[in-house]
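Allow me, if you will, to draw on your knowledge of protein folds for a short while. A protein sequence and the structure tokens that stand for its backbone fold form the material at issue. I would ask you to consider whether the tokens describe a fold that such a sequence might reasonably adopt. Thank you for your consideration; the sequence and its tokens are set out here:
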Amino acid sequence: MSWTPWTRRFPAVPAAPLTAPLTAALPPRLSARLTAALGLLLALLTLLAAAPAARAHEERPVTFPDGSGSVPQYRATEPDLLVCKTDRPAFERRIAAFPEALRQRNLTLYERCEKTGYRHLQEAVDAVDRPGMNIAVLPGLYEEEPSLPQPAGECAALEAPSSALGYQILSYEQQARCPHNQNLVAILGKKDLQIEGTGASRLDVIIDAKYQKLNAVRADKSDGVYFRNFTAQRTTFNSLYVLAADGFVIDDVLTRWNDEYGFLTFASDHGLYKNCESYGNGDSGIYPGSASDINDGRGYEVPRYSIEINGCRSHHNMVGYSGTAGDSVWVHDNEFDQNMGGASMDSAFPGHPGLPQNHAKFERNLIHDNNQDYYRHVADGTCAKPPIERGYEQGVVCPQISMPPGTGIITAGGNWNVYEHNWVYGHRRAGFFLSAVPAFIRGEEEWSKQTDTSHHNRYAGNVLGRDKSGAARPNGMDVWWDGQGRGNCWQPGPDGSSPGTLPQCGDRRGDVSGASARLVGEPVKLAQLLVCADYNVQARRLPAGCDWYGARGLARVETQIALAAAAVLLLVGGVLWWRRLRHSRLGTAASLLGLAGLALDVAGSTMPLTPTAVPAVALLLLGLWWTGAGLALHPDRPWLARLTLLLAGMTLLDAFDKAVLMVPWTPVSPAWARALTTAVWIVWAAAAASTRRPPPARPTAPTPTATPAPTP
């Protein structure tokens, strides 16, 4: 399953009772705003305790293959079994435009198929009686009518747990007993089987589930399976599903118009996708989930990859490529475009062997223009209709999870991934997106594992913001990072990033300059991920305040946080200036700098200005405000002055961290210390501002002393 943020719902935090002792003495309006600000801070601090687990593709418990298999080789020998339809005139029309040699071959095969062949692919699969057999499927539309009816009898009463997505999780034995409860074509336990369409293109053979089955073709425990030159389409889950296979090839196959995935391979090894295409899927076109975790515990250099994906195009999906626990996958020379997101990998869903995700390698891929926004189909009710009525064939896609549209490559909780020599351009939001995911989301509660993701991801040598011709095609920003993790690095000179300064990769893998090692991300970014996560396609719930779903300007949660903080600080700072500092030139000048800083802080929270220097300049001005205010307060309120100067130092350090160099050796960003110090300062400053400073005492003239009269 492709990436989703950590949580599904903003945790309910009883902020008012907790903050009441701090705000009781303040004016009602200031008290309410301060309570809201502190409530948000408490919500962020309770995130790790309050977040529920995410839902995703669920499967029966499986283990990885033992790795003794190999990638199967294509066999050009004559087929053992043939599949064709009986309408010869229709068949001849289909092959009329073929090259002559290919047309003649199909005519010869058809003559044989009329006599000894099968009319449905499932019938041919059932006739396979030994390893190494070839099935040739002649041009035609295969709806597999015997497999389409709803289960009856014993198969209608299978006792099995239901997934969160509504389908039953069947054991292998139940699949074997009732192969068509979920599958149009079920390939169960067949070894070294090759299935190939004989047409001139993959559109000449179409396997159509008509939205009546979970999977169009399922290969389960079928090592060495080879699929070539056909189309599978229109399912309520995915078109082509390979499960628990040691050895498979998907070669020149098209999948389209599915609720979830085009290609789904799970808990498999020695796999190869090549020259494939997928579009119109509610999750991803290509999903190598839980690929065999053969490189766990290694660094960047690995002996081999478990799955290779080469020469494929995945477009007009929610996301082009995704992989929960997409471990040891080599993705090269593909094109991911016109999706909501280009590619993603994550550690966000429980029940997937191989977590946390690690060791994907992306190189020489063309990842561009992934700016589709399919959430509108959820908002207008289209995705609430039955799948057959939604209009998938006319371009409708129903996004199944929460993700940021307009993004090139998303990594949510992955380690030791390498992204080199890719073209990444034309994205409205960001070229690269990196965030961490705590281990309890995948069902692991040990404290030692909670920060075990988002480490050692290398982004180097990529072409950002330009296409292959060299034309400028900028991303909204090249890098968005929540700041968590160690050993992550980026190539020099990204065009806009958040944070504004990033650790840089050396020439050799593992060399990093300006490295940081933080246990938690930036607070405002965590708030964004938290709010944006509350998405549910079935309930038509699109989170308000999240720009992933169309919020702009003051409707965005980041801008709302900045505006609320600015309002509280403006109110408290203004009263403090009036009561304590207006007679001080230093205090007045500092307050004017603070006013400018608050304005820039709100402006810098908007999408166009986030990757610029504006947020850091805002922090610089705020730091100068608190520096001047602290110095001006010192004669009258020395302890408040010390706190103010401490806040100034935290703010200036945060500006340095975001714009110059990430402060090393700190377990959290200076933004966390600044936020906590600001909360205390607001309460203290509000209390100090509630009492008027006594006016300076006027000098009094000395009382004249009476001069004694001279003695006569």
Notes: The two ends are 115 Å apart (CA to CA). The chain has a mean pLDDT of 90. The chain is about 25% helix and 20% strand. The longest strand covers residues 183-188.
